[in-house]
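Listing S7. Sequence submitted for prediction.
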Amino acid sequence: QAAQMLALLQNILENLRMTEGNGSGMGMMSPQDKALGDAIGKLGELMGRQRGLIDKTFREKLGHGDPGDGGAKGLAAQQGALENDLRQLQGKLDKQQGGKLGAAGNAMGQARKDLGGRDLDNAGADEKDALERMRQTADALSRQLAQHQQSGQTQQDPLGRGVGGSGGGVKIPQASDMARARTILRELRKRAGERN
């Protein structure tokens, strides 16, 4: 499944590159798809931060934590900040899209409590659960975006405008969108490698 998502996201990235480099309007994303792309990119960023916390928690458990992190309580604060960012993203998604993010947020909250109590074993498990829930949501959003892109190709005139519309309000993805998409692509590649 992770390998399939790699191919899917690579296709999305190609669409973004076409949009970014073509000033004629071809390949432009609708505002809805732009929002989906933003959400996927943000999830990639959050997944990277969560993976970093998993590593820090493991090192703390071994007694090799970075003093600059402030020990388990400092990691709890980092987990809390990550949880807040996730909740903000969840609020921007509809109920169906954000469902698994709610579970990810709950796992983050439990990890934060575990870290606060120096229960590093359970903290690590909850952190991994949060990461998996985010990955599942990213998978679902990527599929949805790919479906929109495929259906949109048959509903555009030669200038990339929607049939019957002017295409107004459509924004070209920025470099930051590309960077976030690449982040989640790397994450999915890592997941695919772990499963092989």
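Caption to Listing S7: primary sequence and predicted structure tokens for the chain studied. The helical segments are 2-21, 31-61, 71-92, 95-116, 120-153, 175-195. Residues 19-27, 154-173 have pLDDT under 50 and may be disordered.
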